[in-house]
Amino acid sequence: MAVSPAGAAAPATGVSRYVALLPGLVVCFVIAWLAIRIKNATGLNALNPVVVALLVGIAIRATVGMPRGVAPGAAFAVRPVLRAASVLLGLQVTLGGLLSIGGWALTLAVTAVVLTVPFTMWLGKVLDVEPALSQLIGTGTGICGASAIIAANQVVRGKQEDVTYALAVITLCGTAALVIYPALSPLLGLSARSYGLWAGSSIHEVVQAVGAAAAGGPLATEVGTITKLARVIMLAPAVLALGLWVRRGQPKDAVKAPVPWFAFGFLALIVIGSTGVVPRFAVDASLYLVPLMLAASVAALGLNTELRALRAKGLRPLLLGVGATVFISLLGLFGALLLV
Questions:
Q1: Spatial distance between the Cα atoms of 117 and 136, rounded to a whole number of angstroms
Q2: CA–CA gap between residue 334 and residue 108 (Å, rounded)
Q3: Is residue 29 classed exposed, middle or buried when 0-12, 13-18 and 19+ CB atoms within 10 A define those classes?
Q4: Cα(233)–Cα(240) distance, rounded to whole angstroms?
Q5: pLDDT (tens digit, 9 = 90+) per residue, 58-97?
Q6: What is the pLDDT of residue 81?
Q7: C-alpha to C-alpha distances, 14 to 19, 23, 74, 81, 257, nearest whole angstrom
Q8: What is the domain partition of the chain in residue ranges?
Q9: With CB atoms counted within 10 Å of each terminal CB, which end of the chain scores lower, N or C?
Q10: Phi then psi dihedrals of residue 253, to 5 deg
Q11: What are the tens digits of pLDDT across the range 206-216?
Q12: Pick from 338, 7, 34, 14: which is nearest to 191 by CA?
């Protein structure tokens, strides 16, 4: 039986589609690798590889435009690569570690997420900030910074510039907290445990929260890290809830936000990792792969971002980020002071 031309061409078309992704993926991962090297060479926590990769991507787009052949791979990096990184993040959290900080600390971590995200959405409405951008800033503030923003956008479906602006706001506010918290701790008379709890329950990025907590000594570092990871574990339920919120009231024929299946993968790896069956080298590999993949995704985002679109957003989203940061900081401080 003769093979039809269409049937013969289909496999080649499938292969060529994947080959077309390679230039863009290589560019994004090279940018990510360089961003990590810059962070490691300087030792500065403020130089988050995700932020460095974003800035490099934006700079390339602003100076030379989107390089030919890069667009397909860059589009792939923004979503599938990000989702895979979000799933692997689950290997870095264990249920035993979370339980070790106590019920009150866990309650505060969860409360920080549950209250901060809707507060930010409400404040965004007051400030007349677009709903999608408010939702992204809220998840970034309440949960875990850049990782939460790019994960939440899988259901929010904000514009490229929304994600970029949210990342910039969260980075600025989180870096400010990294500097301010250690200076305020002696003035507030916080114990090492309370200070670690404050930092872990309210600072945005994991590296920022751990860096700030480290200023309070080993106990503060341990408490701050685990409290922060308790907020990270809220990523999956928060994204699921946000997806339901986005879909509310939509007509049946409307385009709906997708179900974030990667969130279930994230939770599954937390459970599997907590059993102890995951080899240590796999957990160690995730500590390198997750930042690399996240930075590659954000580099792709930068390559797709127009600076003119960012300037059009104005200052109100920045005010929203500052307001959300002050809210979660006061909430975390109140919880920490109750432990004194």
A1: 9
A2: 10
A3: buried
A4: 12
A5: 888 888 887 778 888 887 887 788 778 777 877 877 777 6
A6: 81
A7: 9, 16, 18, 19, 27
A8: 26-337
A9: N
A10: -90, 5
A11: 767 877 887 78
A12: 338
